[in-house]
Amino acid sequence: SQTIHQWPATLVQPVGSPLSLECTVEGTSNPNLYWYRQAAGRGLQLLFYSVGIGQISSEVPQNLSASRPQDRQFILSSKKLLLSDSGFYLCAWSVTGVEQFFGPGTRLTVL
Amino acid sequence: QKEVEQNSGPLSVPEGAIASLNCTYSDRGSQSFFWYRQYSGKSPELIMSIYSNGDKEDGRFTAQLNKASQYVSLLIRDSQPSDSATYLCAVKDDKIIFGKGTRLHILP
Questions:
Q1: pLDDT digits (tens, 9 = 90+) for B20-50
Q2: Is the dihedral of CA A53, A104, A7, B98 positive or negative?
Q3: Is A44 near chain B, with CB under 8 Å?
Q4: Could you tell me if A89 and A106 are in contact, meaning their C-beta atoms sit under 8 angstroms apart?
Q5: Which of A42, A46, A90 sits opposite B100 (nearest CB)?
Q6: 3-class DSSP state for residue A82?
Q7: Residue in A41, A98, A105 closest to B43 by CB
Q8: What are residue B63's phi and psi, to 5 degrees?
Q9: Over A19-34, what HEC string results?
Q10: Percent above pLDDT 90 for chain B
Q11: How far is A11 from chain B (nearest CA, A)?
Q12: Mean pLDDT of chain A
């Protein structure tokens, strides 16, 4: 069966610091991978998605970037965090491109 | 701008009763519809998918879809305290759009 991991689970970072969040999927090959952010009082916002290694599509212009160095690894990064980057970051995978399944998430607080 | 609308709640339902959650969407081209359950502090969990008009039942859950009215609903029969959560409606055409969710509280 498929399993998705995210780390770290929680993170507190100062404004202006860099960020790296990692997501890995087990038990499947060539999944579609997605990064979402869920901010307090707001819905799930799609940030990036990837249909294969090195293929990244950005949905929202901002100071975040994503990379997919391996088939089952998806990384979310920032060079300088803003207060507005605080939120619950969720990685999701899909094999069919229809149903999406979420990882446990990383709760980021920027101070 | 494609939108998915849900009443934020909270919706309070007595234990053992039927909980009815509703969702409307703006994009008539949408083909796939989902309900996710999200417990406080946790990630969303896919509980139902529906692709054609009518009802789809899975255990205590029934999803209902009416594409003409652009309306999706989720019924939870015999509500349990463990059903207390936020329920997210999601609609997909080329991309998935999520509603902000309805908070459901089952009263013991």
A1: 999 999 999 899 999 999 999 999 999 999 9
A2: positive
A3: yes
A4: yes
A5: A42
A6: coil
A7: A105
A8: -100, 140
A9: EEEEEEEECCCCCEEE
A10: 93
A11: 14
A12: 94
Does the beta-carbon distance from B98 to A43 stay under 8 Å? yes
- Indicate if the pLDDT at residue A61 is higher than 80: no
| Residue type present at position B81 | P
Alpha-carbon gap, residue A57 to A67, rounded angstroms: 10
Average pLDDT over residues A4-16: 96
Q: Chain A residues with CB inside 8 Å of B42's CB?
A: 104-105
User: Does position A81 have pLDDT exceeding 70, yes or no?
Assistant: yes
Residue of B nearest to A37 (CA): B43
Cβ atoms of A89 and A36 closer than 8 Å: yes
Q: In terms of Cα–Cα distance, which of B73, B22, B44 is closest to A101?
A: B44
Q: What residue type is assigned to position A4 of the chain?
A: I
Across the interface, of B4, B43, B100, the residue whose CB is closest to A90 is B43
Report pLDDT digits (tens) over B12-26. Answer: 999 999 999 999 999
Q: How many residues does chain A have?
A: 111
